[in-house]
Amino acid sequence: MERRLSAASRRSAPSPIQQLSHLAQRVGAVNLAEGFPDFAAPPHVKAAAAAAIAADHNQYRHVQGICDILAETAKRDHGLDVDPLTDFVICCGQSEAFAAAIFAIIDPGDEVLLFDPAYETYETCIELARGVPVYVPLDPPSWTLKEDEFLKSFTSRTKAVVLNSPHNSTGKVFSKEKLLIIAQACQKMDCFAITDEVYEYITYDENKHISLASLPGMQERTIITSSLSKTYSVTGWRIGWACAPASIASAIRNIHVKLTDSAPAPFQEAALIALTSKPDFYSSLKKVSLHANL
């Protein structure tokens, strides 16, 4: 029956990252393949998850408080006015939020610009939606975006640009100057931007994370995706979200519900505690992360 498999499944190859991670787990090797913290989750966040399990938060669930906190954070950190009732979708990690966003906006033949190197999930989601990934190389060793090459990558079929900053796997944080180039191009070509901001709290030196949605004219066309995973060392809990204008968020939500219905209930409850962590947690996170990577 293998011949009866879908064309999409035949195009989708096994994930090298997962294969290496599973091998490392089996033999007890140091895992340099997959991006997850190698230190424990914060005690107060683990305690919140345990309490939620003990309280029988076991069924399908939408914890609106997560959206309320995220809206406050978006206003505080990026000056974004978002409606917590309409503009957020809680998903099973950033990966599902990204996939649902792609399925919500991409039609067959639509092109999506990706900065190379790019996290492998992006390409697969675009291809599953029957879109066309188009790679725009970043120039090493500083992983510089060359404006001319970027602008030449746009065509009449370009539907979206994917921006991952801080960037996996190079660690690059896009400057405001480069973000303005991306923003102006998106507006000129009337296309979406999908951002992956999971590393937003882990930046060093003078680098500062700026959300593309905060730039003039961009909030209306930007889908922000992020998660608890990296910031709180809980990559296996699968709590993420998409943030977009209400009509776009509604489309993403409809797809999310059909895919997974809801994110894990007890971990949504724990997210309420994680997302209200004190400021010193985020400063200590940078120190711990830096030490772990030395």
Automatic annotation (TrEMBL):
Cofactor(s) it depends on: pyridoxal 5'-phosphate
Gene Ontology CC terms: cytoplasm
Record's keyword annotation contains Transferase: yes
InterPro entries: Aminotransferase_I/II_large, Kynurenine-oxoglutarate_AT, NHTrfase_class1_PyrdxlP-BS, PyrdxlP-dep_Trfase, PyrdxlP-dep_Trfase_major, PyrdxlP-dep_Trfase_small
Pfam family of the protein (one): Aminotran_1_2
Keywords linked to the UniProt accession: Aminotransferase, Pyridoxal phosphate, Transferase
GO molecular function: kynurenine-oxoglutarate transaminase activity; pyridoxal phosphate binding
Residue stretches making up the Aminotransferase class I/classII large domain: 30-280
Gene3D superfamilies per UniProt: Aspartate Aminotransferase, domain 1 (3.90.1150.10), Type I PLP-dependent aspartate aminotransferase-like (Major domain) (3.40.640.10)
UniProt entry tagged with the keyword Transferase: yes
PROSITE patterns reported in the protein's UniProt record: AA_TRANSFER_CLASS_1
Family in the record: Belongs to the class-I pyridoxal-phosphate-dependent aminotransferase family.
PANTHER family for the chain: AMINOTRANSFERASE, CLASSES I AND II FAMILY PROTEIN, EXPRESSED (PTHR43807:SF12), FI04487P (PTHR43807)
Protein name stated in the entry: N-succinyldiaminopimelate aminotransferase DapC
Lineage, highest ranks first: Eukaryota, Viridiplantae, Streptophyta, Embryophyta, Tracheophyta
